[in-house]
Design a protein that fits this description.
This protein has 3 domains: 133 residues, Leucine Dehydrogenase, chain A, domain 1 (Rossmann fold); 115 residues, Rossmann fold (3-Layer(aba) Sandwich); 170 residues, Rossmann fold (3-Layer(aba) Sandwich), CATH 3.40.50.300. It is an alpha/beta fold. The longest helix is centred in the C-terminal third of the chain and has 18 residues. Strand 1, helix 1 and strand 2 form a beta-alpha-beta unit. The strands form 3 sheets. A 6-stranded mixed beta sheet has the order 2-1-3-5-6-4. A 5-stranded parallel beta sheet has the order 8-7-9-10-11, with helices on both faces. A 5-stranded parallel beta sheet has the order 13-14-12-15-16, sandwiched between helices. The protein contains 17 helices and 16 strands. It is 45% helix and 17% strand.
């Protein structure tokens, strides 16, 4: 299913509104490289297990965002100079199982600043913030010969800002201040025409800081340009190819508009046969007032055959291609609750579409539970032992082979052993609310 396709991803928490899939997948298409880029939701405390999953799937390239840029340093075998000095990694290259960490935030920031400041050496920059991003920006600008002052959030009082900005050529906002409309890290009255302003925050439109700065004549550059710059440098490290930054920037801004306009996304249930995807999905759909769809049922209806008959007539490879087309069709619709086939996650295209267009809920069940639920069901073509009957060991073998794919795909995980359909559905709805 994934012939000649290599997997790349962003890990972090949250990641659902990331622009990285849009910019990287456009670069793969334009470069004619058969790569697929998606996101993996990794909550605090899940990083070690998630890195293990990424190793098992042989993911070729990884971007790292908050809150893991510093913590992930423990899980790479080697780092470049920038990552080592900054103490943070935002890009990982998998070289035959060896993970090498890089920091492309620093060079991405420098490239963004160079678009508005002709000569950096000897000039003075004020950096707002003391987190991983601010350290990367400070490192990059120091390498270019700039004089750096930093102010943490608790130091950003008006009198301190006034004093520092009064002697500065460049101000870099590396705090999240400005993400919400009506907020800015710098009062407009402190801005002057001679300043250059780099705002690492990006929103659909312009932040108040960028808008205020432009209104008084400052040269400005926003966080989308830095995102594209660091992404282009990550892409080069992974593939050896320099992508079109103009295309990446265009796709980033396009994705921001799509995210703003998009209605409630769909919900996808993934998991092994017998984990409860259809029964739980129906209950969730009923509770939320959404339409329920089962991909196996849709395939059976469209081809006038049962899943077992499709397998027997065409084989698994043909079935998976049919399944992929069905998931592609459903991913273009909003507000569905979809129960996908147990092997749907084996295809990277399916994972990407489900994650791009919805929330993925993995229903986990032990092999013994699945065996009991499926005992006597002769319609499962992949779970037969040598004598033609279903065997628990065969369930365990297939389940273990698929587990990394489930772990990679899931935004939410629910254990279904010894739980009723109603209880699992209730838990799913509660966890969905927690993601908002």
């Amino acid at each position: 299913m994934n012939k000649n396709k290599e997997l790349y991803c962003l890990i972090g928490y949250p990641v659902s509104h990331s622009l990285s899939p849009a910019i990287h997948n456009s670069a793969f298409r334009e470069s004619r490289i058969k790569g697929i880029y998606t996101t993996m939701l990794v909550r605090p405390g899940e990083l070690e297990d998630s890195i293990s999953t990424l190793r098992r799937l042989n993911v070729k390239g990884i971007n790292v965002t908050m809150p893991h840029k510093e913590t992930v340093v423990r899980f790479v075998e080697e780092m470049d100079e920038a990552a080592g000095e900054i103490g943070a990694v935002n890009t990982i290259v998998n070289e035959n199982g060896k993970l090498k960490g890089y920091n492309t935030d620093a060079v991405g920031a420098v490239e963004a600043v160079r678009s508005i400041v002709d000569e950096l050496k000897g000039k003075r920059a004020v950096i707002l913030g003391r987190g991983g991003m601010s350290r990367a920006v400070a490192f990059g600008l120091k390498q270019e010969g700039m004089k750096i002052s930093q102010l943490g959030r608790d130091e950003m009082k008006v009198e301190n800002l006034s004093s520092e900005i009064g002697n500065a050529d460049l101000v870099c906002n590396c705090t999240p201040l400005g993400t919400s409309p009506g907020t800015t890290p710098i009062p407009k009255r402190l801005l002057k025409k001679e300043l250059a302003i780099f705002d690492a925050v990006y929103i659909n439109g312009k932040t108040d800081l960028i808008r205020d700065a432009a209104s008084v004549g400052c040269k400005t550059v926003d966080g989308v340009q830095m995102l594209v710059n660091q992404g282009a440098n990550s892409f080069r490290l992974w593939t050896g190819t320099n992508p079109s930054r103009e295309l990446m920037l265009k796709e980033a801004r396009k994705a921001m508009n799509i995210n703003k306009k998009r209605r409630v996304k769909s919900i996808y249930f993934v998991g092994f046969m017998g984990s409860g995807k259809s029964s739980v999905g129906k209950e969730v759909a009923r509770e939320l007032g959404k339409r329920f769809v089962d991909t196996d049922d849709e395939l059976s209806y469209n081809h006038s055959r049962t899943v077992r008959e499709i397998f027997d007539a065409f084989g698994e490879e043909k079935f998976r291609k049919m399944e992929q087309k069905e998931i592609e069709r459903l991913s273009k619709k909003d507000e569905l609750v979809v129960a996908s086939g147990g092997g749907s996650v084996l295809d990277y295209e399916n994972i990407t579409r489900m994650k791009d267009h919805g929330t993925v809920i993995f229903l986990r069940a032990e092999a013994s539970t699945i065996f009991e639920r499926l005992r006597g069901d002769e319609s499962r073509p992949l779970l037969k032992g040598t004598d033609g009957t279903m065997e628990e060991n065969e369930i365990l073998r297939v389940l273990n082979a698929r587990m990394p794919y489930y772990d990679f795909a899931r935004d939410i995980e629910i254990i279904t052993d010894e739980k009723s359909v109603y209880d699992v559905a209730k838990e799913a709805i509660k966890k969905l609310d927690g993601l908002k």
